[in-house]
Task: structure prediction
Amino acid sequence: MKEFSVGKFNIRLMNHNDLEEVKKVQILRYEYLLRDYDPSLPVGGIDNDGYDEVSESVLVIDKENDIIAGTYRIATPDTIKNRKYLTEDEYNIDEIKVSGERFLELGRAVVRPEYRNGSVLKLLFIGIYNYASEHNCRYLLGLCSFHGHDPAIYGHALALLKRDYSCKRFDIKATRNAFSFDYVEPNNIDPALAKEQMPNLLRMYLRLGHKVSVDGSVDYKFNSCDVFIILDINEIDIRYAKRLLNISVSESE
Result:
């Protein structure tokens, strides 16, 4: 992915040879992702799960303050080597792997609290879209997480996902700690409440055209209720994507 700039931000891939930068990214993920989901974790840790070695990470860097504002990790068949995708810890994605289509797995999305006005998240996705285009990836897939272990408190959101956003092409099902989305009858869904219950990231995914699995998976270690998401780039919502991606950018030399 070619580095580019938007205003005071640079968007580029993490430099794996810069061990200090790698550590900064791992600290960022630990403090503002892992501890967001599990505040009982001690302060001062790092998120080093071994997957940075077989992944790329898109970074959004605030040039004025020399700080990493957000990051998103990417794994593809080219990077993952002989490892399992992290998604496979919770879901069977064999249908996608044998489909003959190229795809990339998204994970470890995190934005510093002071940058959570939507702009950094959009820049991260622009970087991901550019990466997918350069590597001829048709599908973007990954997990989107709701806080906590009780999916019932997100009943309207989950019921709406099943009714309006279920993936039809691939039969993606949870392989552990599965839960159904059938907490609310389809005719009783409150759309406003459903939207309120959804993470901002998931709402953006849906507006772009992402579809979801037929069930969810509780990740007790991460303290989350996870939903599998997948986007066919060929079916992306062009109008919303244009609004999302229509930012003046300049490639860095």
